[in-house]
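This section describes the prediction task in plain terms. A model, or a person checking by hand, is given the sequence of a single protein chain and must write out its three-dimensional structure as a string of tokens. No templates, partner chains or ligands are provided. The sample shown here is typical of the held-out split.
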Amino acid sequence: MRRFALAVAVLAAPISLAAQATSPSETAAQVVGRASRVYKQLSGLEADFRQHIEDPMVGNLDSKGKLSQVGKNRFAMRFSDPANEAIVIDGAKVWVYTPSTSPGQVIRFPIPSAAVYGINLLDWFMDNPIDRYRLTYVTTEQLSGRRSDVVLLEPIARGLPFRRAKLWFDREDGLPHRFEIDETQGLKRTVVLANVRPNASIPPSTFVFKVPDGVRVIDQ
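The expected answer:
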């Protein structure tokens, strides 16, 4: 299930997402603080994602697909590779269906009461980031033809499942479009979002998980 730990919960509202241009002299706190403010005003979003995991135990793992979200409790991550796999939050339960690694079963469990790394990646980084992380401005770079501010986030609190994360904050919408995460178990995870679509019209059926025939539901 490691390749499917990403569940990016990003929301977009009918507001202007154009972020002010960031000058090189701006601090990491200003960049991340702006992103957090934009994030908190969002209400629904779709994006394509690619994920690359370097795992010293099993080698490299790659996946891709589309994520959708409306509000904090409606989320769907549908994989095109591996095909037909999904992570869905339907408002009450989280469903994790990964037959390539756990054939014949789907895991179902209650929505966590707080941001949990692996379930809601953006919320983990964007909810009170000034208090949670030591922030260091790294550089400015082009990402998919758009200017980004790169910031290093290092957890201040103990017990977090990663040692550091580098995020690329897009100057146009203010949100992070790339994550490079060094996890505590030696994994290195890279996630890139593309075709980010704020205010997308998302049908309610997107957030309904239909259990495939012959698949067993395991409650946790």
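For orientation: The first helix runs from residue 28 to 41.
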